[in-house]
Task: structure prediction
Amino acid sequence: MSARANTLKEEGNRHFQDGDYKSAEVLYGKAIQQDSQNPKLFTNRAMTRIKLQSWDPCIDDCLHSIDLDRNNMKAYYYLAQAQLALHHPNEALESALTAYKLCVKTESSSTQNASQLVLQAKKEKWEAKERDRIRKRSELLAELEHGLQRMKEFELGNVEFRHKDKGDSTELREERQGVEDISRQKIEELRSVFALADPQNLAPRQVPPHLIDNISFNIMHDPVLTITGHSYDRSTILEHLKRSPTDPLTREPLTIADLRPNLALKQACEVFLEGNGWAVDW
Result:
């Protein structure tokens, strides 16, 4: 990286840390003008654009970064986030899986975050299919859901207007999240009412015990098998081994080299999640 580009990048980093994302975006852009072949500069600006919720420009930056470095984990990670924000769960899942595989390959500290992003993409994919199924079953429900969605967008617009002169802040993020949570709760309650007339939805929502990770107690998406015969999600057992080189259940010595992919269990998890995306938040 040229000296001028590095100076601009460091100045952009300072603005980013101060929460001045717009200035950081401009400075990263100037750094890119000085060194357009540096993939990290594009991911820096992509991260800033996520904060600004500039999804399409963020995707452009990620794709540029990937063109320059096919193993740039952060580019795939940010790309998946932007794709989810634009409601493209299939593309987001592909990007998140690539980020996760790169994390595992490099033993990155971001492995668990990437794993959670994979599960989120799977959930969004299921929710998209679920919305289509519900809409086909009931035009009235679709109309009511659409109304709740528009109400949510209206409320988010009011939040943005009230904070337009304050920039990004904890209060703004909390208000946004509050609107999202209330809207999600209303939609879930609405679906519950309609489900009473649909017997296939009355079955209790339970995740089979063998699909649950014994560390996080969440459903697994990349299970591995230990020499003692226990299975854990790869991301959580890797985090555990950083703290203690033992099997969490038996307390016997355990290293990363002792882990083997549990392909049969992984397939079972994928099949279950394909039809039960709610299990991500179980």
